[in-house]
Amino acid sequence: MSGPRVRVAVLISGTGSNMAALIEAGRAPDAPFEVVLVLSNKDEAGGLAIASAAGVATVAIDHRPFGKDREAHERAVDEALRASGVEVVALAGYMRLLTPWLVGQWAGRMLNIHPSLLPKYPGLDTHARAIEARDAEAGCTVHLVTEGVDEGPALAQAAVPIVAGDTPESLAQRVLTAEHNLYPQALADFCRKLH
Question: Site annotated as Raises pKa of active site His: where (predicted)?
Fold first, then answer.
């Protein structure tokens, strides 16, 4: 890869398995991006320790002290992103609904991965909803973040068959494996177009 890599921050709330996949992918010699910061809204998020162990800078900005003032929390998050020279933000299990303010700050440069084949099943309980609907397949979508929940333009999708006897948990595991492949590829494709 010639030229500088796109500086990416990953926002997490939990264990960060997609974050770990993105960090790993960003280490490839030809990767067009590198993860320079992992930020969580929870001090106890397991992914922070994983990122630290991988040598990536981490910061936790707990949302609880901000009470109901979501934008004040997001301004602190935005400040940390800018202080790290971040160019692209990747949401990976970041369990906060974003305000139009933060979405606007990073419009066109914030990605998310969602565990369904959008536009089907935005929001929560995607696997149970897909099984209940007797869909033949489920999957995941990487999309640009816009003000509507899971409504932004899709950048990439991966389908996973739903098999007899699937539970939301068994389907979730297979979809997560697909996510770990799809998200790094989609982020790389996106970052190649930026420079």
Answer: 150
